[in-house]
Amino acid sequence: MSSSIGFSRRAALLASAFTLGASLTPALAQGEIKLGAVLSVTGPASFLGDPEKRTLEMVVEDVNAKGGILGRKVRLIVYDDAGDANAARTFATRLLEEDKVTAMIGGSTTGTTMAMIPAFEDAQVPFISLAGAVQIIQPVKKWVFKTPHTDTMACEKIFEDMKKRGTTRIGMISGTDGFGKSMRDECVKVAGKHGIEILHEENYGPRDTDMTPQLTNIKNKAGVQAVINPGFGQGPAIVTRNFRQLGITVPLYQSHGVASKQFIELAGPAAEGVRLPAAALLVADKLPDNDPQKKVVMEYSTNYAKRTGQPVSTFGGHAYDGFMIWKEAVERAKTDNPAKVRDEIEKTKGYIGTGGIVNMSPTDHMGLDLSAFRMLEIRNGDWTLVP
Questions:
Q1: Is the CB of residue 158 less than 8 Å from the CB of residue 196?
Q2: How far apart are the C-alpha atoms of 315 and 344, rounded to whole Å?
Q3: Contact present, 141 and 365 (Cβ < 8 Å)
Q4: Against a cut of 0.90, is the pTM above it?
Q5: Which of 266, 379, 318, 284 is nearest to 130 (CA)?
Q6: How many Å is the maximal CA-CA distance in the chain?
Q7: pLDDT tens figures, 304-322
Q8: Beta strands in the chain (DSSP E)
C-alpha cells in the first residue's frame, strides 16, 4: 500500500515538475531578443558575408557578456544564403514565421536584399540591409534601412575626384550583377551633372574570367582619360589585372564594392594606383586625432583583428553599424517591439559609426552624406588617403 502511495506521489511530483518546466520554457524564450541575419557567408559574395557574420557574432557576444539589452540576452539567428536570392527569400520567411525575430540585419548583396524586402515589409519587421544599391532605400520603404553608402554617392565621389584632376571624358566597364548594374545606371544618371562624358561602355558577367576584349575596346577609344569599374567580387580584380596587362595608363577607379584587403590580394601588383571611395575604417590609423570617427573605427578595427585574426573590411563595419543602430533604437524604445523600434531607427541622429555620421529621417533611411566617403588610393599593397 505504502509502495503504491509512494509511486503515486513520485508520479505526481514528476508530472508537476514537467508541467512547471513546460510553462517556464516559453517564458525563458520570451526573455530573449531574437535578431535575424541572412548573409552570404559562402559563395561568390563570401568576402562580404563572412566578415559581416563574424562581426555580428562578436558584438552580440560582447553585449550579452555585459547583461544584454534591457537586461535581456540577444539571440542571433544566422542563415547563409550563399549569394542566392531564392535562398535568401526562403530564409527570410523562416526567420519571420518560425524563428519569430523582431528585427533583421543582413542582406550582403543588393540581389539578396531586394528578394527579402517584401517579406519584411509585409510582416512589418525592421530590416537593416548591408548592401550598396540606392534602390534599397529609394523610394523609401517604411520598414527598410541600410548602413553602406549608396552607389549614387560612390559615382559622385569618384566624379568629384576626376574633376579635381581635370578629367572629363571616361570609359566605363561594369558588372551585370545587381550592384554593378545599379551603380552603372546611377553613374550614367549623375555624370552630366558633374560635367563627365562617358565615351564608351562595356560590361561583363559574374562568371567571366577575362575582360581583355572589353578593355581593348575602351583602350582604343580616342579621348578616354580615365576608366571606372562599377562591380564587386572577383570581376573588378580581373578587370584590374587585365587593365595593367594591356598597358592602359589612364587612372582606374573602382567602387566601394571592393573595399577589402581581399581585392588587393586578388588583384596583386596590378592594384597599385587604383582609386576608390570607401569608409574611414580602412584608414583608421591614418586619420587625424581630431577626426570624430577615429575612436570608433580604431576600437572596432583593433577588436575585430584581435578576435578573428583577419584584417578589417568595410563590410564587417556595415554590420557593426547596423547592430549598434538597432541596439540604440531598442534601448530608446525600451522594448524590442518591431513598430516602436522601427520608429526609433528612423530617428537616429548623430550616430558616429564606421561608415560615417548617421542622421536618418522619414525621407532618408540611410542617413549618410558625401562627407562619409574618403577617396583612397592603393599604394604598396595598402590603403592611402587621397589629399
A1: no
A2: 24
A3: yes
A4: no
A5: 318
A6: 106
A7: 999 999 999 999 999 999 9
A8: 33-39, 74-80, 103-106, 127-129, 144-146, 169-175, 197-204, 226-229, 252-254, 275-278, 351-352, 357-358, 374-379, 382-385
Low-confidence ranges of the chain (pLDDT < 70): 1-30
The answer to whether 358 and 351 are in contact (CB under 8 A) is yes
pLDDT of residue 30: 52
Instruction: Report the C-alpha gap between 150 and 257 in whole angstroms.
Output: 10
Q: What are the pLDDT digits (tens) for 1-35?
A: 334 334 333 333 333 333 333 333 333 335 999 99
Q: How many CB atoms lie within 10 A of CB 196?
A: 23
Place of cell 581585392: 263
CA nearest neighbour of 247 among 275, 276, 218: 218
What is d(CA 360, CA 137) in angstroms, rounded to the nearest whole number? 12
Burial 332-370 (b: 16+ CB within 10 A, else e): ebeebebebbbebbbebeebbbbbbbbebeeebbbbbee
DSSP letter at 150 equals P
CA dihedral sign, ordered 184, 178, 356, 358: positive
Intra-chain end-to-end CA distance of the chain, in Å: 93
* Residue 17 burial (CB count, 10 A): 10
C-beta atoms surrounding 190 within 10 Å: 15
Burial of 67 (0-12, 13-18, 19+ CB in 10 A): exposed
Alpha-carbon distance 387 to 380, whole Å?
17
